[in-house]
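Morning run. Coffee first, then this:
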Amino acid sequence: MQKYDLTKCPCGSGKPYQECCEELHSGKRQAETPTELLRGRYTAYALQNGDYVKASWHPDFCPAVPPRFMVSDYRKIKLTRLEILREEITGDTGVVEYIARLRVGTRFDYIHEIANYVKTGGRWYYTDGNQLH
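And here it is:
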């Protein structure tokens, strides 16, 4: 697993991990917006927290592959920066466009996605996304 300085949360909020995404990962509180859920999921991927990745994925959309295996594919990847481009919320649906920058060994790359969210039972879930890169 890649090492992260947890005095600053990997999501880029500027807060310590313990005061930011750890509260989502531990269940202490739920994400209040799709962007906050995206930040929590990004950090879960960075820290290989497959349980949170699965719990934050709407069950109707979550793939059959257990997230712990999906997350284990990230062992050689270091997520370096999350950039939120826009968030749109309409009722119980949300869209977040973002760029996640990463490093694989010495090679730099990025994921550009428009991610879709739905609020069910007062809780936001990731459903799916359209990768632009």
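The chain has four helices and four strands. Good start to the day.
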